[in-house]
């Protein structure tokens, strides 16, 4: 394995890294929202400043999205649900990891999180008030199969059935992610994603869900950000299961993708007409300077960041440069069996893209920071990256329907004495990224929906509760919800179907 591969230790550094300046460099609008209310979205954005100069004002109607475009928001099970010991739920790797001293900031865990498991009905009302057309959530594997195999836990299925029914009642389309990192601990004990068998267990679990909930779920996403499991879970060790083992990491990459393909095949086998695709975090990679070496290095970097997942799923082959860099004796290379890539490239109906940050790669394969970072120091704020990645996918992989399933900004939001949360930095961020997405649509990208990360403040993995990513503020001691100014702004975007 090359030096370059070993050096790739940047993405989403946690704990060890000192947090970047909050919202540095963001344009911040002038006025506070009139009143963000708890339990409803009764108020609108306060105008009061010149629309030509205040980027946080409501939409001006210049950038309209296609009719039928779906605006949404996203969450994941472990990050919002809490209730980790209820109704027969088993343990997941994130329970184990977050309860291990030193693994998460302040020792935070998802035990309570945003208590969404109990408060989902109120949260559904907030979604309705926001005008959401799509809600992307994930299903907790250990709620459905506490030990990762066998008969489904009916109480787990019932929770998601209630959630999904509640969405339909409010005119919101459910988009369910099958796996957002909370692997049942028993499967981890048997080798986790290093064990090829886990991919088959995943397909069985998927089939239980298709049979249990499939009649009500029009869009399934298979695996959330396999790359983050690979890099954070197995290269840096910042995420569960917390290993630093490059050989294991890329074998895991293969097995995650095998699991994806098997889950796609399992859906087709049920005869369902639901749609399915992967959820990939894609990062535009640019050379940091004009040298041929930086160009070469950024190309390989792109291989590890993007093509390792896109080529396999959409072209049926792993990128040759990445395979060569890993070497013929890597555990990944030895783990690929005849027929695997055919399974992995089973036709998908849509590709979910998650965009947060670009990378700038030097001649030596290191990365440098070009743009202001957010509270998450791995995130450079670069809206044009959204345009670049969406148009690149369409250009290189054909007109597969796209959905943006995550895009957002963390801030250390505070609830002010008048009961409002002024997160105008988030409004600027979202507006600029939505405008970039609009530009991509204008240039022919078949983008059908956009989901803000996140609906609610939640457990941000190793960063615990310090980073707030929600449109809706969660006052953790009381679990009161307060729509932030960005939520009120987003409601107007949805209403106008544009900016
Ligand atoms: C993505 C994850 C999501 C959340 C955001 C900030 O990588 O999929 O769960 O943590 O980052």
TrEMBL record:
What organism is listed for this UniProt entry?
Micromonospora carbonacea
Family listed: Belongs to the glycosyl hydrolase 1 family.
Region Disordered: start and end of each range?
Answer: 42-66, 80-110
Query: Known Pfam families for this protein?
Result: Glyco_hydro_1
Stretches of Basic and acidic residues bias are at 83-92
The protein's Enzyme Commission number? 3.2.1.21
- The signal sequence is 1-24
Iron-sulfur found in the keyword field: no
Alphabetically list the UniProt keywords.
Carbohydrate metabolism, Cellulose degradation, Glycosidase, Hydrolase, Polysaccharide degradation, Signal
Which residues are involved in binding substrate?
79, 180, 224, 356, 453, 460-461
The active site is formed by: 225, 406
- Molecular function via GO: beta-glucosidase activity
- TM helices/strands, residue ranges: none
Q: Spell out the reaction equation it catalyses.
A: Hydrolysis of terminal, non-reducing beta-D-glucosyl residues with release of beta-D-glucose
Q: Does the keyword Hydrolase apply?
A: yes
Q: What is this protein called?
A: Beta-glucosidase
Q: Which GO terms describe its biological process?
A: cellulose catabolic process
Species classification: Bacteria, Bacillati, Actinomycetota, Actinomycetes, Micromonosporales
Task: List the InterPro entries.
Answer: GH (IPR017853), GH_1_N_CS (IPR033132), Glyco_hydro_1 (IPR001360), Glyco_hydro_1_beta-glucosidase (IPR017736), TAT_signal (IPR006311)
Enzyme class of the recorded protein, top EC level: hydrolase
Q: One GO term of the cellular component aspect?
A: cytosol
């Amino acid at each position: 394995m090359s030096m370059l591969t070993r050096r790739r230790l940047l993405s989403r550094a946690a704990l060890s890294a000192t947090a970047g300046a909050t919202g540095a460099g963001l344009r911040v609008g002038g006025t506070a929202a009139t009143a963000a209310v708890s339990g409803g979205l009764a108020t609108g954005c306060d105008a009061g400043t010149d629309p030509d100069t205040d980027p946080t004002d409501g939409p001006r109607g210049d950038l309209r999205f296609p009719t039928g475009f779906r605006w949404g928001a996203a969450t994941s099970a472990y990050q919002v649900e809490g209730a980790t010991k209820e109704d027969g739920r088993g343990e997941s790797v994130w329970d184990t990891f977050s309860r291990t001293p030193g693994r998460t900031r302040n020792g935070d865990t998802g035990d309570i999180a945003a208590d969404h498991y109990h408060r989902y009905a109120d949260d559904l009302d907030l979604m309705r008030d926001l005008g959401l057309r799509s809600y992307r959530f994930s299903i907790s594997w250990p709620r459905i199969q506490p030990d990762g195999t066998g008969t489904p836990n009916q109480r787990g299925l019932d929770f998601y059935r209630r959630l999904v029914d509640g969405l339909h009642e409010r005119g919101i389309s459910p988009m369910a992610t099958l796996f957002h990192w909370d692997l049942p601990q028993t499967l981890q004990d048997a080798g986790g994603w290093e064990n090829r068998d886990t991919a088959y267990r995943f397909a069985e679990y998927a089939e239980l869900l298709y049979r249990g909930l499939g009649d009500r779920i029009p869009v399934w996403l298979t695996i959330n950000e396999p790359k983050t499991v690979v890099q954070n879970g197995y290269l840096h060790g910042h995420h569960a299961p917390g290993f630093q083992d490059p050989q294991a990491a890329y074998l895991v990459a293969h097995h995650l993708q095998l699991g994806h393909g098997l889950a796609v095949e399992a859906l087709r086998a049920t005869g369902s007409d639901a749609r399915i695709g992967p959820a990939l975090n894609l990062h535009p990679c640019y050379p940091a300077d004009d040298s041929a070496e930086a160009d070469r290095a950024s190309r390989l970097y792109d291989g590890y960041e993007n093509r390792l997942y896109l080529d396999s799923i959409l072209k049926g082959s792993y990128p040759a440069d990445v395979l060569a860099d890993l070497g013929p004796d890597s555990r990944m290379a030895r783990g690929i069996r005849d027929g695997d890539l055919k399974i992995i490239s089973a036709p998908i109906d849509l590709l979910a893209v998650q965009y947060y940050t670009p990378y700038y790669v030097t001649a030596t394969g290191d990365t440098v920071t070009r743009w202001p970072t957010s509270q998450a120091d791995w995130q450079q704020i670069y809206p044009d990256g959204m345009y670049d990645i969406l148009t690149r996918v369409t250009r290189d992989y054909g007109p597969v329907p796209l959905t943006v399933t995550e895009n957002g900004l963390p801030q250390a939001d505070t609830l002010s004495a008048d009961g409002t949360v002024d997160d105008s930095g988030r409004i600027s961020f979202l507006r600029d990224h939505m405008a970039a997405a609009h530009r991509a649509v204008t240039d022919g990208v078949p983008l059908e929906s956009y989901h803000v990360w996140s609906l609610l403040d939640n457990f941000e993995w190793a960063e615990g509760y310090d980073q707030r990513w929600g449109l809706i503020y969660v006052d953790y001691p009381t679990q009161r919800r307060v729509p932030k100014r960005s939520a009120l702004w987003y409601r107007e975007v949805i209403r106008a179907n544009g900016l």
